[in-house]
Structures are given as C-alpha cells and as structure tokens.
Design a protein that fits this description.
Elements lengths: L1 H19 L2 E18 L2 E8 L6 E11 L2 E10 L17 E8 L3 E8 L2 H6 L29 E8 L6 E8 L11 E11 L2 E11 L19 E15 L2 E15 L11 E16 L4 E16 L2 E3 L2 E12 L4 E13 L21 E12 L1
Antiparallel strand pairs: 1-2, 1-3, 1-18, 3-4, 4-5, 5-6, 6-7, 7-8, 8-9, 9-10, 10-11, 11-12, 12-13, 13-14, 14-15, 14-16, 16-17, 17-18
Length: 377
C-alpha cells in the first residue's frame, strides 16, 4: 500500500511538471484618450479616440513543450475599438494575428497563418511609430512603409532563425491562394537584425504584387492599405544605440508603388502611375526615472508622384514629442503632441497635411495633442 501511495505521488509530480511545461495565456492592451486637432477637413476637433498610441488588442497565445527543445506554438489576436466595441478589421475574429507553428531552440521558428512581415518585425522596433507598444500618431505619412503595421500578411509561411552571436534572419511568403493565379495577390518579405550590447541594427524588404486589390490573397482589400497597387515595394535600414538611460535611433525607408488605385481604406482618393516615398527618421527615448520617460522624433518624408494629370514632389516635416508616466508595469498615462507641415504639392490630393489616425487637413499644417491612459493584462 505504501508503494502505491509513493508511486501515485510521483506520478502526480511528473504530471504537474509536464503541465507546467505547456501554457495558454490570455493577454491584451487598452488605450484610450482625448485628442485635440486644429484642422481636420478645415475644422478643429476634440475627440475621444482609441489606439492613438498603441493598437488595442486582446489575444490568446500558447506554447506546448514537445521535448528535445521543440515547442508547438500558436497566437490568436483580435484588434478592436474601445469607443464602439467594433473589431478593427471587419469580418474577422482574429484580424491582427492568427498563426500556428513549431519553435526549435536549435533550428528556429516556422509558423503559418496571418502574420507580421519583416518590416514590422525588424524596422518597427527602431521607429518611434512602432517602438515597444507602438506610437501610431508618429507614423510616417499614410504609414507608406507599413512600419506602423497597418496591414498583415495572410496565407503566410514564416521562418525566423535562431540568434547566432546577435545575428538573426527571417523570411516570409504570403500565398495568393488563387487557382491559376499564383502571383495575383502574393507577398514576400525578408530581414536581418544584429543585437550586441547597446547596438541594434536592422534591414528589411517587403513586396506585394496586386496587394489589397482583391478580397482574398496575401493582403485583402479590407486591410488598411492606403495605396493598393499592382506592385508595392518597401526597403529600409536602421539602428539604435543605448547610452545609459537614453536610446537614440536612426531609420531610412524607401517605398515604391506602381499603378495605384483608391481602396476602401484610402485617404487619398486618386490613382497614380508611380508613387515614391523616402522617409528619414531620427528619434530618442530618455528615461528620467524608472516611472517617467520622454521621447521625441523628427521625420522628413520626400515624395514623388506621377499620374494622368501630371507630377508633383510632395514633402512632409513631422515632429513628435511625448511624455509617459507608469503607475505600474501594466498601467501608464501619456501626453503627446505632433506637428506636421506638408508642402510641394499645391493643387494635388497631397496638399493637405495628414497625421496618422486623423482626417486630412485642408491646409499644409496640422497639429494634434492627446492625453490618455493605457493598461495591459
């Protein structure tokens, strides 16, 4: 009898250990605040808004230890608007991320589903627009490079290598899933990062073929793509350096669009033969105390537009300043101001300034300030 009791106790210990090696976690982030804008369509506005800094999400992620350094992983993530309870991506339950795959301690991670591309994964952490939890108001005009993760890649196969002396690579391919149309709406992306002590460097590339021009495919027409086009290419390099309590970053991205047409979520309702953007960003983040931090960024965006009605060279200057105070690891309050000046495109659809997440201004200048609260679970 004593042996049976001991054996049962041992089995329960092993069962508990096996259970502890697997996990399913519910998580989320809520961000809400009051936003003042001096010019949206020619009028000032005071609004209660969600996701002005960080995308609001809730999700479930899981990890099962399969032994030998191999894990089964999954993530199901929903984006939503706190103000009205609606999902960010209509017609979806998990419109931000949904994938399943295998993760190996020695050989890297392979996942399938709806996922981030390498621009978001590798360049996003360098930009103020997607630094940590994100900073949506600070995105480059129209989020033309997707650094602020406006859209995601459907039907994608993604591989991320293990880190080797700080060097890590990833590659992604999004299938069109169209019979007889392999290249109709596909995407591919790759990137590399290097992290060593205070240094973080990254480079990435993304290409969409007929992205967001069809209801199905690698990027659907319900995603937030401002310039659906026959071909979209994004490339960029950047890095940041940590100096005591400060982190200083530099980023350059180059976005090219061929034969664009207005989409369901476009701000600019005009077609273009070619459309190019170069974004140059410098940013800094400084921790005054463990609870109080300051951040700022300056971005210069240079555009080149060609259409049936002519050509133009629009330009944007944008300055962002932010203060953040953390009550705890979960909850913080923030104050942020953004100023944008647009010029060089008088008489075109690009003449008005456009701060990300707001309506376009009727003039070349736009100012926005917001105070809000974020909490995580």
């Amino acid at each position: 009898m004593k042996k049976i009791i001991i054996s049962a106790a041992a089995l329960s210990v092993f069962a508990g250990a096996a259970h502890a090696q697997s996990s399913v976690t519910l998580y989320g982030l809520i961000d809400a605040g009051i936003v003042y804008t001096n010019n949206q369509g020619g009028k000032s506005a005071v609004q209660e808004q969600s996701s002005m800094l960080s995308n609001e999400v809730w999700g479930v992620r899981g990890n099962e230890d399969l032994g030998g350094g191999l894990h089964a992983i999954f993530r199901l993530e929903n984006g939503f608007n706190l103000q009205n309870g609606k999902t960010t991506y209509s017609g979806t339950m998990f419109g931000r991320q949904s994938y399943v795959g295998l993760q190996s301690d020695n050989y890297g991670t392979l996942t399938l589903g709806r996922q981030y591309d390498a621009v978001v994964d590798d360049l996003g952490p360098i930009a103020l627009a997607n630094n940590g939890d994100g900073n949506n108001l600070a995105a480059h005009p129209f989020d033309n490079d997707n650094v602020d993760d406006s859209f995601y890649i459907n039907n994608s196969v993604k591989y991320v290598s293990p880190s080797y002396q700080g060097l890590q690579a990833e590659a992604l391919y999004g299938l069109s899933n169209a019979a007889g149309g392999f290249a109709d709406n596909r995407a591919y992306s790759f990137g590399v990062t290097y992290n060593n002590g205070p240094i973080n460097l990254a480079a990435a590339y993304l290409q969409l073929n007929n992205g967001a021009l069809t209801a199905t495919g690698a990027v659907s027409n319900g995603d937030f793509v401002n310039f659906p086009s026959a071909r979209q290419r994004v490339m960029g390099v950047g890095g940041n350096y940590t100096i005591g309590p400060a982190v200083v970053g530099l980023l350059w991205t180059h976005s090219l669009f061929d034969n664009t047409v207005p989409g369901a979520n476009s701000v600019i309702m005009e077609s273009f033969n070619t459309l190019h953007f170069d974004n140059y960003e410098a940013n800094v983040h400084y921790s005054l105390t463990s609870a109080l931090s300051l951040a700022g960024a300056y971005t210069f965006t240079e555009g080149a537009v060609s259409s049936a009605t002519g050509s133009a060279d629009p330009k944007w200057h944008q300055v962002t300043l932010m203060a953040d105070y953390s009550f705890s690891k979960r909850t913080d309050v923030y104050l942020e101001g953004v100023y944008q000046h647009a010029y060089g495109a008088v008489g075109t659809a690009f003449a008005g300034a456009y701060i990300n997440g707001l309506a376009q201004a009727s003039t070349g200048n736009q100012v926005a300030t917001t105070v809000g609260i974020r909490t995580r679970f």
